[in-house]
Amino acid sequence: MLRKLPPTEQHGVALGFIMKKQRQAAARATASTPSTPRVASLKRHVNSNVGREGEPLLCWLVEVDTAITGRRYVDPLSKVAFAMSCLGGRASNWAYGRQLTDPTCFSTYEVFEDETLVYTCAHVFEEV
User: Fold this and answer.
1) Cα end-to-end distance, the chain, whole Å
2) pLDDT digits (tens, 9 = 90+) for 69-123
3) What is the pTM of this model?
4) CA distance 74 to 116
């Protein structure tokens, strides 16, 4: 059948056949390439810390650490932003007030933890 066609048409048919086979091979290669499954992050709820006397701050910090790990935050500022979003009441006012006056005051999550502990201890002793 191909021999009955003129040489230019034979060339066109052969080229079309080759291109079709290449597309099919590329489609098979793409379909067979295993993709890495995306690991879902865990959205754990954290109770708000409002800075009341007797509120278990260390337990709250452990809750926040667990939630940060579950949500897969790696950027220090994302960790701080998440922890600040879990504050409420006086503690929230204090943290956002500090950040308004000095945007770099909580450069890492560890600094945020330390400053929050200092604030809470000082705040509890002021009330006594």
Assistant:
1) 102
2) 999 999 999 999 999 999 988 889 999 999 999 999 999 999 999 999 888 877 6
3) 0.63
4) 20
